[in-house]
């Protein structure tokens, strides 16, 4: 077997791993596939004869490719609400059902939180915390020393996991209540939804959320239960400014968040937020 054919065969053995790495970095299946293809082109054009650990070498290459893609994405971000729809275009080149299943398997809330990190933070966190790549190997990718790379990953970890300060038990009970609410909504369980809503519960939306199809203002627990029943499938529970909330992120792309106010054990108010300025000020973390 010729050298190029052998490399192609070995690359295919690692393709699923590289795709998994790229997907967690980029949050888009189509972009992950693009990154893997670029990685193959770089590998095919390099002298890999002396590479002892091809999997590790390919992982660092796909890391560099993803970092370039994330930086390019950062540079062309638009603040206009009109760009929400355009942001979906590259994702629709792949099977939406396949990407939805993959997002669920990875953890859609994790993808949303990772999207709030800087490109360097995201690379350092994903490679080290999710794929156990040593800091010494990550450092050349992000052009930092191993010690600085470790600090970057630690900062990213804090941003992903948030602060577990006082009152965490109460917050976790409310977080589980949000998960239960979403399951009931997704399963169409009207009575279960009604039991979790305050009789005087309200639902409010900002203008950007209304333009995205989040509906109009509603009042009354029974009205809210009917509105959410069977209609909350893309939503996931998440922590918003250290309090439980919901995020709507089809295929991993953040669209809007829903902040909550509780009255005792019941949800008293849901506010849908999609305004870019407001979203940028909300800290998204995992519990």
Pick out its properties:
7 strands, 14 helices, seven-stranded mixed beta sheet, elongated, 287 residues, alpha+beta
Please provide a brief summary of the model:
The chain has 287 residues and is α+β, with helices and mostly antiparallel strands.
Protein architecture, described:
With 287 residues, this protein is α+β, with helices and mostly antiparallel strands. 58% of the residues lie in helices and 14% in strands. It has a seven-stranded mixed sheet with strand order 2-1-6-5-4-3-7. Helix 1 runs antiparallel to helix 2, helix 3 (54-75) runs parallel beside helix 8 (135-142) and helix 10 packs antiparallel against helix 11. Residues 78-93 have low confidence and may be disordered.
How is the secondary structure organized here?
Blueprint: H1 3-26, H2 29-44, H3 54-75, H4 83-86, H5 96-106, H6 108-114, H7 119-130, H8 135-142, H9 146-161, H10 168-187, H11 190-196, E1 197-205, H12 207-211, E2 218-219, H13 221-228, E3 235-240, E4 243-248, E5 256-263, E6 266-273, H14 276-281, E7 284-285
Parallel strand pairs: 1-6
Antiparallel strand pairs: 1-2, 3-4, 3-7, 4-5, 5-6
Helix pairs in contact: 1-2, 1-3, 2-3, 3-7, 3-8, 7-8, 7-9, 8-9, 10-11, 11-13
């Amino acid at each position: 077997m010729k050298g190029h054919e052998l490399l192609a065969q070995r690359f295919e053995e690692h393709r699923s791993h590289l795709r998994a790495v790229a997907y967690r970095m980029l949050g888009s299946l189509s972009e992950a596939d693009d990154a893997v293809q670029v990685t193959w082109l770089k590998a095919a054009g390099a002298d890999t004869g002396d590479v002892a650990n091809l999997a590790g070498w390919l992982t660092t290459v796909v890391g560099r490719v993803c970092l370039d893609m994330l930086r390019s994405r950062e540079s062309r971000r638009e603040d206009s609400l009109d760009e929400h729809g355009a942001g979906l275009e590259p994702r629709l080149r792949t099977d939406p059902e396949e990407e939805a299943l993959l997002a669920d398997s990875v953890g859609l809330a994790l993808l949303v939180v990772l999207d709030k990190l800087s490109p360097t933070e995201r690379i350092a966190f994903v490679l080290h915390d999710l794929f156990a790549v040593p800091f010494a190997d990550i450092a050349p990718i992000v052009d930092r020393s191993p010690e600085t790379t470790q600090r970057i990953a630690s900062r990213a970890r804090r941003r992903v996991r948030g602060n577990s300060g006082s009152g965490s038990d109460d917050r976790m009970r409310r977080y589980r209540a949000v998960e239960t609410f979403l399951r009931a909504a997704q399963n169409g369980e009207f009575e279960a939804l009604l039991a979790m809503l305050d009789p005087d519960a309200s639902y409010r939306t900002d203008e950007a959320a209304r333009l995205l199809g989040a509906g109009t203002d509603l009042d009354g627990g029974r009205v809210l239960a009917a509105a959410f029943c069977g209609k909350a499938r893309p939503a996931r529970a998440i922590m918003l400014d250290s309090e439980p909330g919901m995020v709507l992120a089809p295929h991993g792309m953040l669209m809007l968040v829903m902040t909550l106010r509780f009255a005792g054990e019941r949800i008293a108010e849901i506010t849908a937020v999609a305004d870019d300025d407001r979203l940028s000020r909300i800290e998204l973390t995992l519990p």
